[in-house]
Amino acid sequence: MSFSLRALWTEAAQPETLRAVPFILIGCLITAVGLVYFINPYGIVPGGVFGISIVMHAIFPAVPIGTIALCIQIPLLLISLLVLGGKLGLRTLVAAVSLPILVNILTKWSYPPEALKTLDPTKLLGGHLDLTNDLIISSLIGGVLVGIGTGLVIKQSASSGGSDIIAMIIHKFTRIRFSYALMTVDGLIVLSGLLVIGMGFGLNIGSVESKSWMLSFYSLITMFAITRSIATVVSGTQDTKLVHIICDTQDREELREWILHTLDRTATWTPSKGLYSGGNKDILLLVVRQKELPAITEGIKLRAPNCFVIVTDAYDTYGFRWKELPDAGTMRLE
């Protein structure tokens, strides 16, 4: 665990941090626009912290969605420090705090006072942006905006926290694969939205007359749009990264334990020699998703800061935990 005001102040004074913060704020603003104007008014539940917040707002409409998200995000970040280790960086802190605040500001600015509890889309911007009868369009636009904003934040090596922290904690104590744990957490969030908002087991948060089990489909559309937009912003059309870690032999075992038991990944180890020094080196090769890359580079820096790391795009990945190898003659370059 690593957290200190001195470390935050030191990070704040670095030129790269000063350049990153404006992009983080722009990313948070774009995300907030997607949430406030295209997701929140219709009870769409996109998973993650804001998915939980939308469901909680349906039950407690007097509490703004951004406030609920802030009350969830900060404890999650603190729990991750205590349980998972690592450090809390200034960029992540800026993203985790500014996004809920921007959501609250935009919400208060876009609705008349009497509609702040219900988030009635017919009163959003004076009724000029009511997409009640076009929920698929709203799901897609909202998902793309949230994905673009989140991608900008991730590109600055920041994170606003979220359901991935819960999934990592579940993985740590149950040994369930991280990918399965994350899928389960987001699935439960969407299911809770279906029960509370779609099926009426909560207070009505708008005037959408067609709320039903179909709400879960709109949520899944939004989640897909978010995922693809993040991948496009961060790495173009490539979502798979190939990571080469060239390290000293004494660092290999610690990195091995971290990759296998914390990241829940596997890798390939190859012994080698430094051309200039002639010393023994080890090369670890692993394939990851783009979203995982900031956590991986940060983990390497904490455990073996003298490593040489190469990150490249991978066109496609086949094998264990990825896709099955295609049949002969079925591969196409697109």
Brief overview:
This protein has 334 residues and is α+β, with helices and mostly antiparallel strands. Helix content is 56%, strand content 9%. The chain has two domains: 5-235, no CATH class; 240-313, 2-Layer Sandwich (Alpha-Beta Plaits).
Q: Order of strands across the widest beta sheet?
A: 2-3-1-4
Counting DSSP H or I runs of 4 or more residues, the number of helices is 11
H-E order: HHHHHHHHHEHEEHE
Largest sheet entry? 4 strands, antiparallel
Q: How many beta strands in the DSSP annotation? A: 4
Average of pLDDT: 81
Task: Kindly provide the radius of gyration, computed on alpha-carbon positions and rounded to a whole number of angstroms.
Answer: 22 Å
How would you describe what is shown here?
By secondary structure, the protein is of the alpha+beta class. It has eleven helices and four strands. It has helices spanning 5-12, 15-39, 48-59, 65-84, 90-110, 135-155, 163-174, 178-198, 215-235, 249-262, 293-303, and strands spanning 240-248, 268-273, 280-289, 308-313. It has a four-stranded antiparallel beta sheet. The longest helix is centred in the N-terminal third of the chain and has 25 residues, at 15-39. The model is unreliable at 203-210 and 328-334 (pLDDT under 50).
